[in-house]
């Protein structure tokens, strides 16, 4: 039974969601700092990301078995999460930090919200609010400062492209994590994380050929900002904290909040990563990069906090006779892409019910 007061009814879940989102942001923020010494020690970026994802998948294997029914309920969702939110994000991000500083890579990755705004406006051809457009513009301006375009890109161009690829995949992380709780066949967020990592591990195994890596390097030492430490220490942190803890708390947080709100809190990951890279790796950003980073975060915040224009009170799916999501199914401020996916899930569930009803006859 729900409280008649929406604020009273949702406050505990929202508080839990915000707490988990903060934990996830701080956990994710240390991934690049832990991974970079392993890359510099001789492991390729793709082998490091394979180690991260596969190690986490093994840890979560008992949970995946416990929620094995999710494979039959929402296979497309789990495959999409594994491809985009796990394999895509991690592979692109680790490839980026092998060529550009950790802080710069993450700041570019958080162009995801403005990229989503661009997708809605130019691909879906749907109107967006002025605030969202301004936020996207501010974020792009900040990116120009981060990469110092006036110097002809002061950072490796391929590294910047990899970071942009991570930004595109990050959109899928928030949208698919939210979609898991929608429709007639919701999936437990733990199942989304566990199977997403398992599927991502399988994909990365095919792509990276881990048997060709020199894993004996994990038995040696790595150097972090002039200090020597066992390679297993950053590897364990990367698997257990920056992956297992980060994904579990992050996916649950999105389902208690909304993709935009969770995305705003996740922006703290860039701040955490930049500070950790400064302290632990000695990567210092200049004044233009610092100012640009603040603009990227501010623009991403504005883009995520703005509601899509022209979506209130209308639902084409409902007008066409397909069931629209129940009132409140799409959280306030949800992205237009998230709303479209939710309506599609509702329409799919309606078709399944109709097909079952006809078979029953």
Description:
The chain is mainly alpha-helical and 361 residues long. 71% of the residues lie in helices and 2% in strands. It is built from 17 helices and two strands. A two-stranded antiparallel sheet has the order 1-2. Helix 10 packs across helix 13 and helix 13 packs antiparallel against helix 15. The longest helix has 25 residues. It is globular, with a radius of gyration of 21 Å. The N terminus is likely disordered.
Keywords summarizing the entry:
17 helices; disordered N terminus; 2% strand; 361 residues; mainly alpha
**Gyration radius over CA:** 21 Å
Low-confidence stretches: 1-10, 310-352
Give a count of the beta strands, DSSP E runs of length 2 or more.
Answer: 2
Report the span from N to C terminus.
Answer: 35 Å
Structural class: mainly alpha
Mean pLDDT score? 74
**General shape:** globular
Task: Give the strand content.
Answer: under 5%
Spatial order of strands in the largest sheet: 1-2
Helix amount, in percent? over 70%
Element string (H = helix, E = strand): HHHHHHHHHHHEEHHHHHH
Largest sheet: 2 strands, antiparallel
* Count of helix runs: 17
């Amino acid at each position: 039974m729900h409280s008649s007061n929406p604020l009273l009814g949702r406050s505990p879940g929202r508080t839990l969601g915000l707490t988990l989102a903060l934990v996830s942001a701080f956990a994710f923020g240390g991934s690049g700092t832990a991974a970079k010494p392993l890359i510099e020690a001789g492991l390729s970026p793709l082998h490091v990301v394979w180690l991260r994802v596969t190690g986490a998948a093994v840890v979560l294997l008992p949970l995946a078995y416990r929620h094995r029914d999710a494979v039959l309920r929402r296979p497309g969702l789990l495959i999409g999460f594994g491809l985009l939110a796990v394999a895509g994000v991690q592979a692109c991000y680790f490839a980026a930090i092998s060529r550009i500083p950790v802080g710069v890579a993450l700041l570019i990755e958080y162009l995801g919200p403005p990229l989503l705004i661009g997708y809605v406006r130019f691909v879906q051809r749907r109107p967006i609010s002025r605030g969202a457009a301004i936020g996207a513009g501010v974020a792009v301006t900040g990116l120009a400062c981060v990469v110092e375009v006036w110097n002809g890109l002061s950072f490796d161009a391929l590294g910047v492209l990899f970071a942009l690829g991570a930004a595109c995949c990050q959109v899928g992380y928030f949208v698919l994590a939210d979609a898991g709780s929608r429709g007639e066949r919701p999936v437990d967020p733990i199942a989304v994380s566990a199977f997403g990592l398992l599927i991502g591990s399988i994909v990365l195994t095919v792509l990276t050929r881990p048997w060709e890596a020199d894993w004996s390097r994990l038995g040696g030492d790595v150097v972090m900002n002039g200090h020597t430490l066992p390679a297993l220490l950053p590897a364990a942190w990367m698997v257990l904290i920056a992956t297992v803890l980060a994904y579990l708390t992050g996916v649950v947080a999105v389902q208690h909040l909304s993709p935009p709100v969770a995305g705003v809190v996740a922006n703290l990951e860039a701040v955490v990563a930049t500070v950790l890279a400064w302290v632990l790796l000695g990567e210092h950003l200049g004044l233009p990069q610092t100012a640009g980073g603040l603009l990227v975060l501010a623009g991403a915040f504005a883009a995520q906090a703005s509601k899509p224009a022209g979506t209130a009170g209308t639902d084409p799916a409902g007008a066409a006779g397909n069931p629209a999501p129940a009132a409140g199914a799409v959280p306030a401020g949800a992205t237009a892409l998230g709303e479209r996916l939710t309506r599609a899930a509702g329409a799919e569930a309606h078709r399944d019910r109709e097909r079952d009803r006809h078979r029953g006859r």
